[in-house]
Design goal:
Elements lengths: L1 H7 L21 H10 L4 H5 L3 H5 L9 H20 L5 H10 L3 H40 L1
Helix pairs in contact: 5-7, 6-7
């Protein structure tokens, strides 16, 4: 089941497109979100009740349950941490380099690097906020 869906999302099979995007108009690219929701799902029957567009949409709140959604968001947050770790510098170091004065082309490169990191950090903040909201709903439901 999961493998078939990953093929439909072009994340598996022949010539998969493994590059996914974060930030922008889509907070998390739908293909990544759907893949995580499916891979982390404990109940195949629940997955089969939803079409691919529902599973790809961040606007559909927790289609496979709150625990699944929290796990998917936390996985994306972890991927963001890994992505940030691949940059050679931290934002503060980049800003310090800009203050020291660099060539125009280096300044552009540093500003671009800062923007990329800022987008990733914004995604992490948004998803962390969503995890907190979902966790509070789960707690309220459990207590109700």
């Amino acid at each position: 089941m999961a493998e078939r869906l990953l093929c439909q999302l072009n994340l598996d099979g022949e010539a998969p497109l493994l590059k996914v995007c974060l930030g922008g108009s889509e907070l998390v690219e739908g293909r990544l979100l759907a893949a995580l929701r499916v891979v982390l799902a404990s109940d195949v029957e629940t997955v089969q009740k939803h079409d691919l567009n529902t599973l790809k949409s961040i606007d559909v709140e927790a289609p496979l349950g709150i625990a699944n959604e929290v796990a998917a968001f936390r996985t994306v947050i972890a991927l963001c941490v890994i992505a940030l770790g691949h940059f050679p510098t931290k934002i503060m170091e980049d800003e310090s380099l800009l203050q020291k004065g660099v060539s125009d082309s280096t300044e552009l490169a540093i500003q671009f690097r800062i923007q990329k990191k800022s987008v990733i950090i914004d995604v992490m903040r948004d998803l962390t906020r969503r995890v907190k909201l979902l966790s509070s709903k789960e707690t309220a439901t459990a207590q109700g």
